[in-house]
Every structure is written in C-alpha cells, then in structure tokens.
Amino acid sequence: MTLIGPLGLGQVQDRWEVDSIGGLTLGADPIAYAISYASATSSSPLRAFTVRKEAKSYGTGKLIEGPFRTGDRTVIIEDVITTGSSALKAIAAVQSAGGRVLGVLALVDREEGGRETIEAAGFPVATLVRAHDLLPLIPSE
Asked: Which of 73, 78, 84, 88 has a CA between 20 and 30 Å from the CA of residue 112?
C-alpha cells in the first residue's frame, strides 16, 4: 500500500484528471484503495469503487459498489493485464452507469496482447511495470 499507492497516484495524476478509480473485483480492489488512500491528503482526493463481476440479486443489487457517481471521470484499475477482457468488462459497467472512462492503469502488463486490445477499444493504458522488466529479476532454479 505504501509503495503502490503513491506510484499509482503519480501515474494517474500525470495522465488524467479524474474523480474516481476502480475496477473489476478482486484484483483491482487493493490497488484502487491504495491509490485512493495515497490521494487523501492531495488537493483532489480520488474515490475508489468496486465493479462486481455480476450484480447480486440481494442487497443493493448494483454492479458498481462504493462512492462512484454518475458523471464521474474514471480510470479503470487492473492488477495484471493479460487479454484485456477484465478491463473492458469494467469499462462497460462504468459507462453503463454513466461514468466517463479516461483510461486504464495496470500494476503489471504481461505483454500478451491485452494492452493492444484495450487501446484498440479507444482507451489509453498506463502500467507500473511490464513483464519484460520483471522476468530478469526472477531467480532461476
């Protein structure tokens, strides 16, 4: 939280002017919350929300939970981009709820085509690290 939050916040603030951040549960949740927490003392605190994989038939019955508001400028958060499908699902949910998605921020891009899929759909992608940056750091057995 102390490392990823400020790094993610810097990436978001350098690229976009947003109101809220969030993504598909469960992978995006801790990252979005860490970024939101890091933004708490800034001039523009970010609200973090969760996108359910499907709406529950009980409780609020919402697909998006948390302080998301219709009209929010948002960035979708991802833990890892592989195919891009999770980000696109979250984007569709936010757009259906009246949000404006400005882009996607991922902790790791596995470099397996997901970034290109998201960008082809019209959404810029920023990442904190890419697979080719990490692989040399993994000790061989």
From this structure: 73
The count of structural domains within the chain is 1
The CATH number given to whatever domain includes residue 100 is: 3.40.50.2020
Q: What is the rounded distance in angstroms from the CA atom of residue 103 to the CA atom of residue 91?
A: 9
Q: Which of 71, 78, 70 is nearest to 32 (CA)?
A: 78
CA atoms 98, 103, 107, 108: torsion sign: positive
What pTM value is reported for the model?
0.94
Strands across the sheet containing 20-24: 64-65, 47-51, 20-24, 73-81, 100-109, 125-130
**pLDDT tens-digit map of 53-92:** 987 777 777 899 999 999 999 999 999 999 999 999 999 9
